[in-house]
Structure formats: structure tokens, C-alpha cells
Automatic annotation (TrEMBL):
It comes from the Eukaryota. The gene is LOC113588365. The chain crosses the membrane at residues 20-41, 53-72, 92-108, 114-135, 142-160, 197-214. Keywords: Membrane, Transmembrane, Transmembrane helix. This is Monocyte to macrophage differentiation-associated 2b. GO terms for molecular function: pore-forming activity. The keyword rRNA-binding does not apply.
Length: 229
């Protein structure tokens, strides 16, 4: 690994770290697309179809844009403006991925009158995060991390209040993967391959959450108990 970057600059990975950063998310592009398609074909109504489409789009976009950004960063040389654009997209897609990950639970599970508003609040939060990136990209890194954490935790309070608790264990374990991975997200220059390790935690968290959505919301037995809307 290289030396840790100053607070106002990005860490510059080694060639091996660049390769690892690309590979650890590129491996999941096709599986994430196939996973979204599978949920779509398992859908029985328009709400399940919409949830599957949004979730699949968020999941596959996360891995695709992340991979594209890291490839451009690795081979950039003179593509500074393109790299900056993809870096912003890489940050923005995280907000929409979080919203998309909650959408099946908030849409296909029965919620109380107040909690049901979270179905659209998560997308407002994602839009707010996008605005923040446009105006303050990489300017206040700690605030950015707090925003991601808040958006990841706040909707969970609604999900935990659902009458049907099936799948909550997987949601907590997957969320734990993201939280543990954030330690490595901020450890470039301290831990070798820190960002690639972060990618692996993201992949694990996403995989566990996908399994929970597939098993508890889209399998025939559990679809009968999904009474949202």
C-alpha cells in the first residue's frame, strides 16, 4: 500500500490495490443483474414487480458504477473530468442503493399509517444525498459518512416495527457487514487493500439482504403473507 493521503486528498492505491478494487465489485455485476431479473419473474403483482425492478436496478448499479469508477481511476492518465464525474456517481449510487434495498420491505410488508410514509421518505433522503454530493463532493468526508450511516439506520427503525418479523435476523446481519466494512472504508493507507476489503463486506451485506428478500418476500409461501400497499 501507499502512504495515507492528507485529509483534503484521495488515497492513491497501488497497482495491486487498483486491480483488487475493480475485481471485488466486477465479480458481482452479472449475479446482481440476474438476481433482479429472478425477483421480477417471481413477482405476482405490480407492487412486487416495481419493488423487484427498483431493488435490482439499485443493486446492479452499485456494482457496475463502482467497477467503472475504479477502472477509470486505474487507467485514467488524462481523464480527470471523467474520473471526477464517475466518482460523484459512485457516491450518489450508494444513497439510491440504500433506498432500493429498503423498498421491498417497505412496500411488500404491512406497515402502520405513520411507518408507511417511509416508503417515499427513503427516496427523498436519497435525493437529498444526491444534492449534497453535487454541492459538497469530498469536501466534508465525515459528514458524508454520517449521512450514509443515518440513511442506513433510520428506515431500519420502521422495518423493525413490522408485525411480521421474518427476515429481520438476516437484515441485522447484513447491516452488521456494512457497519464492520466501514472500518476498512476509512483505512486506506493504514490497512493494505482496505478498500477492496470494504468491497467484500459490501458484497456480503448485499448478498445476505438479497437472500432475505428472495426467501421472505418472493418465495410462494411467504408471498401469501405480504399484504402491503
Amino acid at each position: 500500500m501507499n502512504n495515507r493521503a492528507p485529509a483534503n486528498k484521495r488515497y492513491q492505491p497501488t497497482e495491486y490495490e487498483h486491480a483488487a478494487n475493480c475485481a471485488t465489485h466486477a465479480l458481482w455485476i452479472i449475479p446482481s443483474i440476474m438476481g433482479g431479473v429472478l425477483l421480477y419473474f417471481l413477482s405476482n403483482d405490480q407492487w412486487e414487480e416495481t419493488s423487484a425492478w427498483l431493488y435490482g436496478a439499485g443493486l446492479s448499479s452499485l456494482f457496475t458504477i463502482s467497477t467503472a469508477f475504479h477502472i477509470i481511476t486505474w487507467k485514467k492518465s488524462h481523464l480527470r473530468s471523467v474520473e471526477h464525474c464517475f466518482h460523484m456517481c459512485d457516491r450518489i449510487v450508494i444513497y439510491f442503493f440504500i433506498a432500493a434495498s429498503y423498498t421491498p420491505w417497505l412496500t411488500l410488508r404491512e406497515l402502520g399509517p405513520w411507518a408507511a410514509h417511509m416508503r417515499w421518505v427513503v427516496w427523498v433522503m436519497a435525493s437529498g444525498g444526491t444534492t449534497y454530493v453535487f454541492f459538497f463532493h469530498e469536501r466534508y468526508k465525515v459528514i458524508e459518512l454520517v449521512c450514509y450511516t443515518a440513511m442506513g439506520v433510520f428506515p431500519a427503525l420502521v422495518v423493525l416495527s413490522m408485525t411480521d418479523r421474518a427476515g429481520l435476523y438476516e437484515l441485522l446481519v447484513g447491516g452488521g457487514c456494512y457497519v464492520l466494512g466501514m472500518v476498512f472504508f476509512k483505512s486506506d493507507g493504514v490497512v493494505p487493500f482496505a478498500h477492496a476489503i470494504w468491497h467484500l463486506f459490501v458484497a456480503m451485506g448485499a448478498g445476505i439482504h438479497y437472500y432475505a428478500i428472495w426467501k421472505y418476500l418472493y418465495t410462494p409461501v411467504n408471498q401469501q403473507t405480504s399484504t402491503a400497499r
